[in-house]
Amino acid sequence: MTETTTAIPKPDSAARAIWAQFRSHKGAVFGLVVLGILILAVLIGPYLWHPEKLTVVEAIKSKNKGPSLKFPLGTDQLGRDMLQRMIQAGKVSLAVGFVAMLIAIVFGTLIGVLAGYYRRLDGPLMRLTDMFLALPLIPLLLVIMMLFRDRTASILGPELGAFTLIVFAIGITSWMQAARIVRGEVLALKEREYVLAARSIGSASRRIITRHILPNVVSPVMVAATLGIAEAIITESVLSFLGLGFPPDFPTWGRLLYDGLSYMQVYPERVIWPGLAISLTVLSVNYIGDGLRDALDPRIRGR
Amino acid sequence: MRDTTTAPLVQVDGLKMYFPIYSGILRRHTGDVKAVDGVSFSIQAGETLGLVGESGCGKSTVGRALLRLYEPTAGAVVIEGEDIAKLSPEALRRKRPTMQMVFQDPQASLNPRMTLADIISEPLVEHTDWNADRRLERVYELMDAVGLNRRFANRFPHEFSGGQRQRIGIARALALNPKFIVCDEPIAALDVSIQAQVVNLLEDLQEKLGLTYLFISHDLSMVRHIADRVAVMYLGRIAELSPRDALFSKPLHPYAEALLSAVNEPDPSLARRPRIILKGDVPSPARPPKGCNFSTRCPKAFARCHAEKPELQEVEPGRHVACFLYDAKPGSTGTTEAPANLRQEHNPQGEYQ
Fold it and tell me: What is the pTM assigned to this prediction?
């Protein structure tokens, strides 16, 4: 067995193998590029594109313009530059989507793993999940926003306050799917013989969860996460639409979408631009999630 | 038999493993599945005890309860003077390195997301404070010991064949220099050609490292090959516990007799022996029959079998049987001479060994 002891290859870097597999997934690379462009656009865009300030009269004159050199995406019903508003809106929408998804996934996975692994916690935690699922979410969100909006605004300022509250409210009301999926997966995984083997070695529960359970629930969590981003962006726009999200002059993609809705038959591009941005984000995140899931699974990576 | 004057390495006493049944709206405890119902045996250091029986008779449960992967309902499991069944979690953790397990399904017993090196070094991470280099050195040692190429260290389980995977499982079990290994049907999921390799590997390792095995299997020919003594289980109880050669040439318990008559004989000229076909099904372990567990299917059952449970007792030197046929107690309804005639009737294995 040891005739070539000198030539034992050093362990390959896991990160490199994952990256190699990720790159071989065309959709994932496409998604990464698109998402990268979107993120760059909203981060760098404000520095590259500052349209001149218009006076009220000029603004009224230039309202509802189509695309032109001066206004690449046209103007809205108040004469504001759509490109600038799209860039501003993107920053908020992307941030809300990612942070709310992160909260929902972390919370959902935590609840799911605890409920699946510890039989004693299963009943209470899953009933809690059922309770949250049974709550009518929009009214609940509205109540949360109404009760706490002023308080968070006074502590963190109107914009950051609204952002924190919205992200938290969305996160706290959308973890249930992830929790249920993870619980089901954990229930199956913990009966696998390698978990039994780890217990026979004497591993602590905490170690078993981090080493054997969590890496194996990555796939469903990844799917839930990618869907969660889309859902968070939409939920935020619903809140803004109902007047309880961000302040009205504070653009988000969802808000632009709803603003454009009443003019859709005359100026369809007003709905198309934010709609396209949301769709592209969701699509690219989905593909990235898909590629990441494959890349993290050694069985697929080996192919 | 080995030297029985020294204390056995493993001493199991009255081990019971009941799985509760909850039913009804209030989920009340309405009964138990008596997977293991009062099992006692001992294993000397360096010995291999084979544990055989049909599916669902509680073999694997005994193995797992022995390592306290299940919390036993009752009974004592003394390994090296410490009762495993009553150790505190921390003491149990420290005790774990002396007893390890090799699992049935090598596919399921290896985490698909860990490399071979990670899998084999997991016990080392758990129980030693070695650094990565030292652990890798030990992993290489173990891979040499079980006959795996060192180049495989960074591969994942799905890249190996069944036999190689089982070697990985064995290497993991050996990592902490255990004294006692429970082999839970380690060859059941393997090809016949690979089975022999794995069993021979287990034997070599036993010789080299002085291991003690509890070898759980339903493959009687493999048990005959590897075991020193064999326990035959039926419905959660041991029917017979005898030295291998004695058992295979002359099983005493009617169930052992029937079970051994099912062994395939490769030589056709020797194959003409009566097969004992048992009637009916195994009763549910949730409601075992009153009296002897085997009484519902036993061809030799008599009145007493349906009324009392026989205890395992030594009927010949080294041979323990739980059957009233061999009970010398007076008043056993005049069947004292029955065993002798009955034993001559069936001699499933012949004396060819």
Answer: 0.79
